[in-house]
Structure formats: C-alpha cells, structure tokens
Amino acid sequence: AAQDCLAAALEMRRVGNLEKMREQAANLETACREVIERHPRSAEPHALLGRLYRALMRPEDAIAQQELALSKEPGLATARYERAVLLAVKNDRIRHRNTHLAARIRDGQP
C-alpha cells in the first residue's frame, strides 16, 4: 500500500499536480512514521520515507532517512541507491556553486 501511495505521489509530481502530490505525500509520511513506531528495527520504512523526501525536494531529510535505513540494514539496495543519487546531486550542486564563485572572483565580481 505504501509503495502504491508513493508511486501515485510521484506520478502526480510528474504530471504537475503538485497540490494532490503533497496531499498524497502527507498520507504516506504518516503511514511510514506509524510503521517506524511499530517496527523500529525495520529499514524499509526509512528508505521509503527518504524516497518521498527526495520527491518533495527535501534532500537533507532524504539523506538522513537513507542513512537510518542503512544503519539498520547495510545491504538494503534501495537505500544504497537513493543515498548514492542524493549524494551525487549534492556534490554536483556544490561543484556548480564553487565553479560559479571561482568565475565571479576571477572576474572581480563580489
């Protein structure tokens, strides 16, 4: 059920229905948190919540949830993949920002 909810939220984001996506996301977040409370040793709800946060463009929250998932199950492929994607995007943003700053310094701009 949670996977279906996430798939529906992602599809709504893809087609541009952000309001409906956020509504669906809120339901999924609540469901994940309930599962985490009932099954604190389970890694999958953290991985799913992290995927949701990535879809909501909350990368720091997403990374934190993937790290929690991997602390509970280091070999969980979905969490490893999501963490790799998130860290690659973060590194690209840092590299882009640094390149932009270097160009501004080189050109004498503040």
Descriptive overview:
The chain has five helices and no strands. Helix content is 83%, strand content 0%. The chain is an all-alpha fold and 110 residues long. The chain starts with a helix and ends with a helix. The protein is globular, with a radius of gyration of 17 Å. Helix 1 packs parallel to helix 3.
Can you give the mean pLDDT? 84
Given the helix and strand composition, which structural class is it? Answer: mainly alpha
Number of helices, counting only DSSP H or I runs of 4 residues or more: 5
Molecular shape: globular
Number of strands: 0
Oligomeric state of this protein: single chain
Taking the sheet with the most strands, its summary is: none
Q: If you compute it from the alpha carbons, what radius of gyration comes out, rounded to the nearest whole angstrom? A: 17 Å
> Which segments are poorly predicted (pLDDT under 50) over 5 or more consecutive residues?
none
Q: Beta-strand level of the residues, as a percent range?
A: under 5%
